[in-house]
Amino acid sequence: MATSPDYPPYEFEVQKNGKSQIVGMDVDIMKKVAKDLGVKLVIKSMSFDSVLVAVETGKADVAMSGINPTPSRRQSVDFSEIYYNGGQSFLINKTDVAKYKNQSALAHKKIGAQTGTLQYNLAKSKIPGATVKGMDKNTDLVLALKTHKVDALGIETPSAEAYIKNDPDLAMFKSSYHLNKNETGSAMALKKGSGTLVAAINKSIDQIKQQHLANQYLADAGKYMKVNTHNTSMWHYRSYFLKGVEYTLIISAISVIFGVLLGTILALMRFSKSKILHAIAVAYIEFVRGTPLMVQVLFVYFGVGIIINLPALLSGIIAVSLNSGAYVAEIIRGGINSVDKGQTEASASLGLTKGDSMRYVILPQALKNIWPALGNEFVSLIKESSIVSIIGVTDLIYQLNIVRADTYRGVMPVFVAMIIYFIITFILTRVLNYYEGRMKHAR
């Protein structure tokens, strides 16, 4: 099951028995389905933008994240029957209750909605003159609402109810959309051609409807949410941030090592007399530098994943390493060019081969020249590695969004993550400066 656990009460994370677990109505429904099918349920967390792609590329058998089976989505994936229809609502600030009493009052206003969702498309097509602002996370949208960047937030009714129960500054009202229930409820998404599996899942959904289990699961989710909001201090969620720091450092450290190795090889290839090696290095560097890291992460995880099923963490490390290698290559190339040509001539006159000259004479001097730039790349890598959260790697940014979803606190988790990043980069900068000073005094 692929899901984005930042959408209470459908799916969210909670500390249970000292461990972080994904819970919610969708999770309980999927457990029931897995039991009926006689299979083990494995939950893969990732950003909402990626859950359908995970199904299309075989990373998951089922995507379940409060997904509406719209016609456009049906072109890419198969859907089960609707298992729950909570309806559509709008979140507003409580101070605006008198101002926005119904959907008609939102005409020509700024409406927030999660990018790529039914709520986004509805606001665009059915609210006259509305300016729709899309974001990837509902937690970001709620923060935008509370800071008056948007006037209202389009969201499913159960989630809206969850927010107003846990945040006294928010209010809600139901939409007046006239919608086809077969398109607006929540359904499970499966890979195209999964007819047999869809039929088996639909049998479980029929039982869930007949026994009204969805309401029971929704009530259970509410109990978990009360556990989360009982103590919303950042110290209470310290294990989340510590886990995020652990994964951020692992990704950064490994990516730095492989990035430097790859960058050195690419830089030497650019200096090679072989036109083929030179062309390969130039093409690689230009291509990587010309495409966003986020796209590279998605390609390694989903694109390469079609051939080799790589875990999310490994995919993130590979993508960040490959990206870093291209930038390090240019830094090293600049350092080599900064070494006086006379050094090469002097080493040749001493009988050194070109390889030995590069190893013992040129590169050591180049390293002194490029150390500050190389240090900047290391620092940038720690911050840029946060992009791996989109494929479900539990780095610091991923944990930040989970804490925001669980506690309904928009700003404080961001502030904590910002301080943590500063501490990490400050310490690293001091270490790099120490070694830079030693290099300057070395003979």
TrEMBL record:
Keywords attached to this entry: Amino-acid transport, Cell membrane, Membrane, Transmembrane, Transmembrane helix, Transport
Query: Record's PROSITE patterns?
Result: ABC_TM1
Q: Give the highest taxon in the source lineage.
A: Bacteria
**Membrane topology classification:** Multi-pass membrane protein
Matching Pfam families: BPD_transp_1 (PF00528), SBP_bac_3 (PF00497)
* GO MF term set: transmembrane transporter activity
Q: Where in the cell is it found?
A: Cell membrane
What are the TM regions of this chain, as residue ranges?
247-268, 298-320, 414-435
User: The ABC transmembrane type-1 domain covers which part of the protein?
Assistant: 245-432
Any one of the GO CC terms: ATP-binding cassette (ABC) transporter complex
Report the record's Gene Ontology biological process terms: amino acid transport
- Its main localization is membrane
What family does the entry list?
Answer: Belongs to the binding-protein-dependent transport system permease family. HisMQ subfamily.
What protein am I looking at?
ABC transporter permease subunit
Q: Which organism is it from?
A: Secundilactobacillus folii
